[in-house]
Amino acid sequence: MALVEIRDVHKIFQRDTERIEVFTGLTLDVAEGSFTALMGPSGSGKSTLLNLLAGLDRPTSGIVRVAGSEVSAMTAAQLAPWRARHVGFVFQQLNLLPVLTAFQNVELPLLLTRLSKREREERVRIALGVVGLEDRMRHYPRQLSGGQEQRVAIARAIVGDPTLVLLDEPTGQLDAKSSREVLALLARLNSEFKKTIMIVTHDPHAAEQATTVLHLEKGTLIEKEAVAR
Amino acid sequence: MKIPLIYNARSVLQRPVSTAFTALGIALVVAVFIGMLALGNGLRAALARTGSDGNVLVLRRGADSELASGIARDAVSILAASPHVATGPDGRPLVSPEVYVLVPLPRPGDSSAVANVVARGVSDQAWNVRANVQVIAGKRPRSGRSEVCVGQKLIGRFDHLGVGETLRFAGRDWTVVCHFSAGGSAFESEIWGENEQFMPVFRGQVFQSVTFRLRDPAAFDEAKRTLESDQRLTVNAHRESTFYAEQVGILGVMLRVLAFGITGIMAVGAIFGAVNTMYAAVSSRTPEIAVLLTLGFHPRSVLASFLVESALIAAVGGVLGALLALPINGIVTSTTNWSSFSEIAFSFRVTPGLLASGVAFAIVMGVVGGFFPARRAAKLPVIQALRA
Amino acid sequence: MKYLPLVLANLGRHKIRTVLTIASVTLALFLFASLRTVVTTLHANAQFGSARRLVTLNATGLVFVLPMAYANKIRALPGVESVSWANWFGGHYGDTKQFFAQFAVDAESYLAMYPEISLPEDQKQAFLHERTAAIIGKRLVDRYGWQVGQNVTLQGTIFPGDWTFTIRGVYTPTAPQIGDDVLLFHHEYLDERLGHAGIAGWFIVQIRDPGAAAAIAKAIDDQFRNSSAATKTGTEQAFQAGFATMLGNVSLLMGTIGTAVVFAILLVTANAMMMSARERTGEVAVMKTIGFSDRTLFGLVISEAGVIAGAGALLGLGAAKAFYRAINFNGFGFLPGFDITTGTLVMGGGIALLLMLASGLVPAARAARLPIVQALRRVE
Fold first, then answer.
1. What is the ipTM of this complex?
2. Which residues, in sequence order, are CB contacts of A24 under 8 Å at separation 6+?
């Protein structure tokens, strides 16, 4: 059984009088421990797919199953705690709360658990250590570079040991050097820590780090490359 | 170069709720401001209009109110014969010796609560000496009868005051035969009867005061000197208008302190609200401000623009507050004149001047509140702003 | 609470705004407490009065006197323990505009009847044994610097002339409704100067059994119904209550202003909360993505409003309580015993709660209902 099972998913957006069909019968498996890069032109539905996986959005029809749970059938009230437990999400920008330090930002998902203050602190340190920013934990986002902010966001995404780590154009706003750092980190998370990662990206370098590359065009999978590493 | 007002007007409309809240907060402060000062104005007006500049009120020496005073009959004769006293068209001196007492009247609906109402025993000359007194219903009390005339401010506030009704006080029944008005003055809170009728019932053979019209209104000081140095009398002469105006005394001070104190504190709160709103406005319009500065508008113009905007919002609030306060004009209320221990009824008095000061006050609040945010806008580091 | 740092951090986003809003709440609640206490003080003063003391006035009115001879007749009635009398003097001190009350009393019986007027025994004896002596309340010592042993001259108004008294004692009221700014002197001195004894302003009648108050009052009034001066007797409390209504409809005035104040502050707080909420839609979306439930986010926003309202309430109510105590405020003499009651504090707390809900509800609901995907689209 694949970690993620997408079966015959249709997604239709109603924008005013326009009806936009993003997916028409998409079927896809994502294996555990894979590092998938989702590529394609704008409007092809990459972000929408990510949202469906995270339970942020619901398919018009079809089933989305993650780690055996039918995410597409859960209520909003059920999805919140499910997300907290199973999903780590990183956006292109504005991930971090500017009023919190790096430490506090990474701690956020753990506030939803029953862990004690000391246990939370321990995990945050570990997560920040993995992304190499433990020495910056008392800094505010405005004191960090773009690349450092994204790495803190990744730390936050993994601190709860989620089933899936989803990233939507994480290097879109970064310069070349920072992009490479972030992607190298993701590759390490996948190879060393066995995290299942799915990343939406335009960046061909990202594709190089991935184990699987999916091309989406107009809501359909065009190509599926299994990249040997 | 001046930044057009249209920019401010449109920007204000972009955040309608925030603007409305700020304006409303200021409106409430202005309303309370106007209301409280109207209360004090009303009290002061009632007392000020009570006396006339051309009349003299004579009390026993040392007495600070009619209540505390006592003047014997022979003293009254001496006073009436004074050359300073004007004579009426019938040749009689315009002098009125008066009995002044307080009678407890029960408040309607609550018999345990009483109000001390002034009962003034007057001579028939009183109606002439006091030019602003007029009978508005019924006929003046006849000599020798247990009849009284009731001031119009008392009507409706106590029972048994209708013309023809019987009012009981001092152990006797009195027939109400008329109502009178007195130019909105304190006399309108009084019950008038014949002094000879009141005297035996109340205080024995003394009057409390003598009021007369000056033959020459400019000669008050001379009249005062003459009367006070007369060995046969032990009296103080007061100009009637000044005497009553001063009776506002401690109550007037209290109301003023209260008015400024309360609205002062409220104003600070409202100003804080305005500050918040303007800071948020500056913050959300940072790119626009940067553009304006880049275009060449002077920082001073930006400062002025935001100040004007703040003042405008406040002015709207001020007008609203004035409208809110307006309906209280004329509402009759009562309190105790502590100088005479008597109940005095008066109306709230909202004047155009008061309304104008309310709006001006609002604008001041707006300018004060908008100052620091406006300064921040003017000092915006342009390059940073453009990058944001 | 583990979410507290998050709530506080959000409030720290715009420190000026948070401080100003809390300050506004502080001012409003200070004002509210002050206004309400005027009403509660007047009310408490209206309630004051021993159940065992009756007051007998001239039925014609407060300003009329009663014959001294009545005292013996009243004393003879069954159930009456003792009788005392007093007269309002109404003098001036110098040309000061500050007003304070002076009473001529039948000293020995009066002090025995009013244990609330407490002074050291030696001072009391000194006062009782000297006809031109007077005792004063503590506040007069502070106000005029008068000392025990000093001579004080007053100008009489009702009783003309200069009246000199020697201060022999300073009393402290054990009940705040007995003002601490009164001067008491001997009725005998008044009688002597006037040349005729025989008039009292009012009588105070101490009775054995409070339950018999109504009956004894009636007995007294019946006794004098057909005399030269009919009387009206009632409990001391009824007498006090009558004064309470004299200022006018104070509670309506204070209530109206109080409502305006609370409303104004509500607008300021709601405005601040709204502005904060508007700036944070993106962050709310991110938090939901992490897995924070709608309910939790609702609670966080409401808590923010709560911190502002709570801090303001604590500061405002606390400051009011401390301030009036510190300056020993008694409203120019009209409001003795002015002190913020527990009831007022509780009401203030209630207002803070109302403030929290009214200003926080809409932003909190908005945050809870924020559709994540649409909000995220705005983020990116």
1. 0.83
2. A10, A219, A220
